Amino acid sequence: MNLKSYVEQYVRYHQSLGKQFETQSRLLRAFVRKFNSSKTVETLTSTEVEAYIRESGTSRYWYIKYSTLEPLFRYALARGDIQRNPLPPDPPRRGPKLQPYIYSKAEIRRLLQATARYQKFPGTLEPITVRTLILLTYGAALRAGEVRRLNRKDVLLDDSLITVRDTKFYKSRLVPINEQVTEAMRAYLHRDSASQADGDAPAFTTRTGGRMATSTVAGHFRRVCAAAGIRRDDDGRFQTRLHDLRHSFAVHRLVQWYREGQDVQGLLPHLSVFLGHTQLAATQVYLSMTPQLLQEASQRFETYAFPETFHA
């Protein structure tokens, strides 16, 4: 079996376990394209593998490639298809962890206001599309890809619900939306009476009626951020992103619960379900994401640990 067929077999194995495996399969197929059709997994040399990993020259991408190939070779070793692992013995140092940008509520208002003025000339997306996109991404804490893939039938306006289908973990969920987001979605969807009857049509479209591309959404959002004067000046790897609105929703919700005196640990599983997380640990990371949140948690602890100080 040549390397291409072997990798495809490996990808199908992981997808059969319920994984999307999209990023890994893309990297593995790029790896396969480096070799001719006669190359097999057992004839791979350490020199060939290391050359592929190191060609990007950046430690972060180095790490991503290494961590993608490492389980492939463990799989091959377990099956007896290779006798030794061709990966370099010393794994690269992982790059700094991505730190989401948490928008303040004032910044979110500035983003919404900026959608009315960020286009000097008509762009691929209408300003109302971008404004509604921002409202829904924040108000329903959706992933950017989930918003882009929504169809009209997924927006249940009478029930103030969004059906998110086949998400990051091949699961679907119902997400409630508040009155402001519901009315914004109603106004947006009803502006085009010609396509209202087609439930399979994209909920968010370009000016020509097509589904939005990821790069298109990202480009328009960068321009909105520029118009709103929002730019991160810390050591973050990326500038502000649409997806960070989802993280901002989670942090804002936790801060609100702390200030209301709610049982945050008890409510955390509810937030986890709302966000579509499969493990509670994925939601718990938000508990220490910002200084503001840590301060609220610290004040809560002091209230319980030293009640006489707060009731003196």
Q: Explain this structure to me?
A:
The chain is mainly alpha-helical and 312 residues long. It has helices at 3-16, 22-32, 46-54, 59-78, 105-114, 127-139, 144-149, 179-189, 214-228, 244-259, 264-275, 280-284, 291-305, 307-311; strands at residues 155-156, 161-164, 173-176. Mean pLDDT is 86; it is low at 308-312.
List the helices and strands and how they pair.
Layout: H1 3-16, H2 22-32, H3 46-54, H4 59-78, H5 105-114, H6 127-139, H7 144-149, E1 155-156, E2 161-164, E3 173-176, H8 179-189, H9 214-228, H10 244-259, H11 264-275, H12 280-284, H13 291-305, H14 307-311
Antiparallel strand pairs: 1-2, 2-3
Task: Looking at this protein, list some descriptive labels.
three-stranded antiparallel β-sheet, 312 residues, mainly alpha, 3 domains, 14 helices, hpI Integrase, Chain A, disordered C terminus, 3 strands, DNA polymerase, domain 1, globular
